[in-house]
């Protein structure tokens, strides 16, 4: 069993955690509170338990730049987008990490990035224009079930229904690329992530 924590050990734990993991202030605070619950607090020489100020410790690490919610949100949103996840899943992941609303909105994917992520997911899962000939069901009932399954997969990944519908209806990858380029032109930039 590990010994109870004092302020120095708690600070060392916080520094170690911040050095090892990209994190947010909320996650770091939850980690430290969990460690206090698990290990308890040490008594000083007089037999008193000194309760450390966890929010102040986290604030100090934020002030020093060891923990940066903005950098975390930017990195996590970009990573999820490159893995094919949509806006809703990105926002859920950031909310779960304790990123505040303003940062979640600032790092939410734009229309072109959302379309690009949806196309990436469809390509990875071989949906829509990337489906193999062997995967296309000749039976109308089986084709409908496969289409519903594909829509459900895209919605679970956080994509808009309109994006899923367009991609699954597309007959060639070039049409999807043109659709993505159209959104990028409307946004006036190539990349939002």
| Structure annotation, total helices | 10
The tally of domains stands at 2
Overall structural class, as computed from helix and strand content, comes to mainly alpha
Number of β-strand runs: 0
Mean pLDDT: 92
Describe the overall structure.
- The chain is mostly helical and 193 residues long.
- The chain is elongated.
- The protein starts with 6 loop residues before the first helix and ends in a 6-residue tail after the last helix.
- It has 2 domains: 7-67; 70-187, no CATH class.
- The protein has 10 helices and no strands.
- The protein has helices at 7-20, 25-39, 54-64, 69-82, 87-96, 101-106, 111-124, 140-156, 161-169, 173-187.
- Helices cover 65% and strands 0% of the residues.
Q: Which characteristics define this entry?
A:
193 residues; mainly alpha; 65% helix; 0% strand
Quick take:
The chain has 193 residues and is mainly alpha-helical. 65% of the residues lie in helices and 0% in strands.
Ordered list of secondary-structure elements with their pairings:
Elements: H1 7-20, H2 25-39, H3 54-64, H4 69-82, H5 87-96, H6 101-106, H7 111-124, H8 140-156, H9 161-169, H10 173-187
Helix pairs in contact: 1-2, 2-3, 4-5, 7-9, 7-10, 8-9
